[in-house]
Amino acid sequence: MTTTDFSSLRTTLLEWFAAHKRPLPWRRDYQPYEVWIAEIMGQQTQVERVAEYFTRWMELFPDVAALARASEQDVLKAWEGLGYYSRARNLHHAAAQLMARHAGALPADEKMLRDLPGIGPYTAAAILSIGFNRPCPLVDANVERIAARLRDLEEPVKSAPGKKAVADWASRFLDETRPRLCNEALMEFGELVCTPKNPRCAECPLVSSCLAHRSQSVALRPVLKPRPTRIDVTLACGIIRHEGRLYIQQRCANDRWGGLWEFPGGGVEANETPEQATLREILEETGWRVRISGFFRTVTHCYTRYRVTLHCFWCELEPGQSPQPRLNAADQYAWVKEAELARYPYPSGPRQLVEALLDGK
Fold first, then answer.
1. One domain, residues 58 and 111
2. Residue among 87, 98, 94 nearest 42 (CA)
3. 143 and 212 part of one domain
4. Residue 191's pLDDT is what?
5. Active-site residues: which are they?
6. CATH no. for residue 169?
7. Cα–Cα–Cα angle for 47, 52, 53, nearest 5°?
8. 3-state SS track over 255-275
9. Are residues 248 and 348 in the same domain?
10. pLDDT of 266
11. For residue 251, what are the β-bridge partners?
12. Are 125 and 174 part of one and the same domain?
């Protein structure tokens, strides 16, 4: 494509964006802090869901100072349901660093941004481009898909030649006087028109420039690596009742879900029933011998390569035991009334159980 071709393509897409862009909350005035939060929330999360969480987050933590002042538990609770809780912790830690080093403002400097926890090359470039209107090309899955289809790119987009071809295309598309608009237009176009499945080619303003459409290979672009095989994991846990309260425990700080709360339990081993696993795990984690008084429910959730099935049972302490556990897999514990469960942040599986409890299901 020539420079003239890119200029025409850019003009067409910016006109489309002006007419079709969604009124997302972080687009009101493009504050760098808001762009940062939206970018971190948007990793592997649909835009509509991000908008919901973003609005609630801004009510709680409207600026860096408010986020830095918050407790980790409040931050994790606000993040609850988005998964990848290390991202929430990194936001919290980065806010503290911004207060200490940059007077609570995000710096318009790539190196300084990348020195902050949780900010890698793409996120730094996004903050600079969207938040500060700097000429930084952004290559996400949407841009990979658009470039691969317009160029009818045969190389896998994650291969070295594919990455270079897409990066070169994105750089040439960028207009240095309107970098924010160019990058947002591309990502919006990928979200609304040039979608992964069932792209809306009949409504596409770029269809005359699309080589994949011309060669009828749109469904084959971009070329991706095969998806890894899904791994099924079976877990079991117990909701222990004692004197009108329920037992929960907080995962260790160095755990993947450190700081989050759960009902005691763990993996179901080979030749073991979920009930047997529940009794064994509770004994190992708390020192308690319990009896199962009934089945509560089974929930499932997926993350990365894993599909997790969690079986949950009602449990009671065997007579004569102290209600104080010997913690072997948690930092803290609490006996709480059912209505108090909502105060705590949980990983996905336990959160589904808590929601079912509170809904009376």
1. yes
2. 87
3. yes
4. 96
5. 39
6. 1.10.340.30
7. 95
8. CCCCCCEECCEEECCCCCCHH
9. yes
10. 97
11. 330
12. yes
pLDDT band of 360, cuts 50, 70, 90:
confident
One domain for residues 120 and 236: no
Q: Residue 114 belongs to what domain range?
A: 3-220
E-strand stretches of 136-274 = 231-242, 245-251, 261-262, 265-267
Does 17 map to a domain?
yes
Tokens found for residue 297: 């429910």
Q: pTM above 0.85?
A: yes
Residues 299 and 319 in one domain: yes
Q: Is the dihedral of CA 182, 184, 190, 194 positive or negative?
A: negative
Asked if 298 contacts 349 with a C-beta cutoff of 8 angstroms, the reply is no
Q: Which long-range contacts (CB under 8 A, 24 or more apart) does 117-123 make?
A: 117/89, 117/90, 117/93, 118/40, 118/86, 118/87, 118/90, 118/91, 118/93, 118/94, 119/36, 119/90, 119/94, 123/36, 123/39, 123/40
Per-residue pLDDT reduced to its tens digit, 102-141: 999 999 999 999 999 999 999 999 999 999 999 999 999 9
Peptide bond into 350 cis (omega under 30): no
Tell me if 226 is assigned to some domain: no
- The H-or-E segment that residue 88 falls in is helix 85-102
Q: Which residues sit opposite 242 in a β-bridge?
A: 245
Task: State whether residue 327 is helix, strand or coil.
Answer: coil
How far apart, in whole angstroms, are the C-alpha atoms of residue 137 and residue 330?
44
For the chain, the domain total comes to: 2
Distance CA 354, CA 342 (A): 7
Q: Is residue 225 part of a domain?
A: no
